[in-house]
Amino acid sequence: MKTILSTLVLVFAFIFKVSANDPAFENAMKTQIAAMKSIQTPAESQTVTNGFLRIAEAKTTEWLPLYYAAYLQSIAAFRFEVNKDEYFDQAMELVTKADKIAPNNSEITALKGFIIMGKLSVDPMSRGQEMSPLAMQTFGKAIALDKENPRATTLMAQMELGMSQFFGSGPEKACGLARVGLELFAKEEAKVTENYLLPTWGKDQAEQVAGVCK
Predict the structure, then answer these.
(1) Mean of the per-residue pLDDT values for the chain?
(2) How many CB atoms lie within 10 A of CB 201?
(3) Which of 36, 35, 25 has the alpha carbon at shortest distance from 63?
């Protein structure tokens, strides 16, 4: 908790310093991204989310703070005992704002699909007919926008695996996508540096799908 509180101090300092091409943005983002790794409770998740939102308010032309806030809200819905629909709806609102800043962005589109998949998981029986095709379509768009995006391919693999389990069909398509996703993650890891701000999450999800194929 002490680490997360210290990030708020840095975020507030950033708000007063931010200007065009100011490295304070990168420093504040790096601090928040690091804080994501220590989240253990819904309250801590909301604290880090709020930090990203403060950065977004100060830097209105940047999509990444809104993206990470949306990601944290969706992860909290999957991970904690919270009002899942409320969290997923908040996540979708935030990622939609990010989409207006950076339209046709593969990362943003993939996260939209992830949130839709989350909404589907809350009540698959009543939502499956509407949301399953929408999630598949959204992941397909994310892949088309950037075939090198490992999250887009991995999330499609997860969706394909779920569909195959629901309909009792083979997981071959999901397995193939998971293997491609792992290859893409390896490429991504090779170019990630200490100052890397872009999303890197999702490898564990690709490994989980690939594990089913063994």
Answers:
(1) 91
(2) 16
(3) 25
Tracing tokens 């083979």 back to the chain, one arrives at 170
Task: Answer whether residue 118 is part of any domain.
Answer: no
Each residue of 37-68: pLDDT tens digit? Answer: 999 999 999 999 999 999 999 999 999 999 99
What single letter denotes the amino acid at residue 84?
Answer: K
Which structural domain range is residue 52 located in?
1-103
Least Cα distance to 57 among 104, 15, 10 occurs for: 15
pLDDT > 50? residue 6: no
User: Total structural domains in the chain?
Assistant: 2
Q: Could you give the percent of the chain with pLDDT greater than 70? A: 90
Using a 10 angstrom Cβ sphere, with 0-12 exposed, 13-18 middle and 19 or more buried, the burial of residue 74 is buried
- Among 81, 82, 109, which residue's Cα sits nearest to residue 96? 109
pLDDT band at 21 (very low <50, low <70, confident <90, very high): low
Span 62-114, pLDDT tens digits: 999 999 999 999 999 999 999 999 999 999 999 999 999 999 999 999 999 99
CA 28 distance to own-chain centroid? 19
Evaluate whether 173 touches 152 at the Cβ level (below 8 Å). no
| Contacts for 57-60: CB closer than 8 Å, 24+ residues apart | 57/15, 58/14, 58/15, 58/18, 59/18, 59/25, 60/101
Residues 130 and 99 in one domain: no
